[in-house]
């Protein structure tokens, strides 16, 4: 369990103050000194060592200089200067950190500027021309067909698609010494969902492996390889799975009262630090969004609409470096799929609507990527999917516009039914991804292998019924 959690601070105020001041080198040295000289518990040593590693991960995420940002920005603002950078920093459009006295910008800050800042976004469209996202075009065409088929057939599950997935992780040569064993956990689809069926392992490049049982909410397939000098180490699996569109025509007046004494209700409406916390910001925003509304679906709809309208998608930092993801989303006013999802879940839970995490991959034609979404519980309907990142479909029809508030397409591959839960078999060292699990995890006896030591690749073959 230790390898899954991340705390916003250590137990040591002197370390925390140095980190807060951006004095990463001094903080790391102080951590080394404490581990070496103090009689610490194992948990305290683990926490300090992870904090040191987290600082290194932040350095990796914040690796761009002002010159790097200006070079990109000048494609659209030829006369941009550092005063423009300061303006964008002040309005929250450019994310940066002062580390050891020097300003470093987030690796994706330049491209994010033209997603987050409305004026910059218009300027980019002026230069590049407006082009609707191909995924949006696909969904605008696909969603009405799903709704029509479900209504006509009076079936909740429609339009099945069978996917053949070829997933490969490649560890770079000499990432570990010759002859050392690399332990690898790759994502494996979860069972127990009507909309995800017939999961088959078709191939794996190892004679020995372990598939985690389905009671592991972040499900894995585990195997090992021996590293060879100057050679990449390759882990490969081939899977087949059939997924369905799930359609729920939700009538708000048909939603029944919750049993607030049930374990389900108590569990999934509670805080869960560090990422689901009912802070003053959450409480104040909730009051602004929800007002006097009492119906659970209509409350969720107000939250879904507000986030879709006010929180633009932007490339995200590694989650393991963020102290409180939902609070980060409110503060920065942008986020990727998981960041927006955790904000939605936090606001739902605060308003007494059970909400739980779900994630895996999006396998849409032309748009294959890691992806996060969630489910909310509506009494009388059960758990229904919500994709806050996809948000509102561009349509005048209400059921199409709010399709992803209660329904979902078949291109969502479910790997996880929770976040920050242990993987099986247990990992010795801290995970690269302490919240989600989609790419995989790797380690050897000398430590964790972070994302900069390996690459991942997903190939998808679509086998749709004729």
From TrEMBL:
Annotated Pfam families: Transglut_core
Name by which UniProt lists this protein: Transglutaminase-like enzyme
Domain Transglutaminase-like residue range list: 329-390
PANTHER family named in the record: TRANSGLUTAMINASE DOMAIN PROTEIN, TRANSGLUTAMINASE-LIKE DOMAIN-CONTAINING PROTEIN
InterPro entries membership: Papain-like_cys_pep_sf (IPR038765), Transglutaminase-like (IPR002931)
């Amino acid at each position: 369990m230790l390898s899954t959690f991340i705390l916003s601070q250590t137990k040591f105020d002197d370390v925390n103050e140095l980190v807060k001041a951006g004095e990463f080198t001094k903080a790391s040295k102080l951590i080394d000194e404490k581990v070496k000289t103090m009689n610490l518990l194992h948990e305290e040593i683990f926490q300090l060592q992870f904090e040191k590693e987290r600082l290194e991960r932040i350095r990796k995420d914040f690796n761009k200089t002002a010159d790097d940002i200006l070079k990109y920005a000048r494609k659209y603002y030829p006369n941009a200067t550092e005063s423009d950078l300061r303006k964008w920093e002040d309005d929250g459009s450019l994310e940066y950190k002062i580390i050891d006295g020097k300003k470093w910008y987030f690796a994706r800050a330049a491209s994010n500027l033209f997603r987050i800042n409305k004026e910059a976004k218009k300027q980019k469209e002026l230069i590049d021309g407006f082009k609707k996202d191909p995924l949006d075009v696909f969904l605008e065409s696909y969603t009405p067909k799903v709704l029509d088929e479900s209504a006509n057939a009076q079936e909740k599950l429609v339009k099945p698609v069978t996917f053949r997935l070829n997933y490969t992780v490649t560890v770079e040569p000499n990432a570990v010494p010759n002859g050392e064993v690399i332990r690898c956990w790759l994502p494996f689809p979860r069972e127990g969902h009507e909309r995800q069926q017939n999961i088959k392992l078709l191939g794996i490049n190892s004679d020995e492996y372990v598939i985690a049982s389905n009671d592991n909410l972040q499900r894995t397939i585990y195997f090992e390889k021996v590293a060879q000098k100057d050679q990449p180490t390759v882990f490969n699996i081939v899977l087949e799975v059939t997924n369905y569109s799930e359609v729920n025509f939700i009538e708000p007046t048909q939603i029944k009262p919750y049993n607030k004494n049930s374990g389900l209700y108590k569990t999934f409406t509670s805080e869960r630090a560090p990422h689901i916390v009912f802070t003053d910001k959450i409480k104040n925003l909730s009051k602004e969004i929800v007002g006097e509304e009492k119906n659970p679906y209509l409350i969720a709809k107000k939250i879904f609409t507000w986030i879709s309208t006010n929180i633009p998608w932007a490339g995200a930092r590694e989650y393991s470096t963020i102290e409180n993801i939902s609070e980060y989303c409110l503060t920065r006013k942008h986020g990727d799929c998981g960041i927006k999802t955790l904000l939605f879940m936090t606001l739902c839970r605060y308003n007494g609507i059970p909400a739980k995490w779900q994630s895996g991959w999006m396998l849409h034609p032309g748009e294959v990527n890691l992806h996060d979404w969630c489910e909310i519980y509506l009494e009388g309907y059960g758990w229904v999917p919500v994709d806050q990142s996809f948000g509102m479909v561009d349509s005048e029809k209400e059921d199409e516009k709010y399709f992803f508030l209660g329904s979902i397409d078949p291109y969502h591959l479910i790997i996880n039914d929770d976040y920050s839960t242990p993987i099986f078999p247990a990992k010795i060292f801290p995970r690269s991804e302490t919240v989600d699990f989609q790419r995989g995890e790797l380690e050897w006896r000398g430590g964790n292998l972070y994302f900069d030591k390996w690459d991942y690749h997903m190939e998808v073959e679509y086998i749709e019924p004729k």
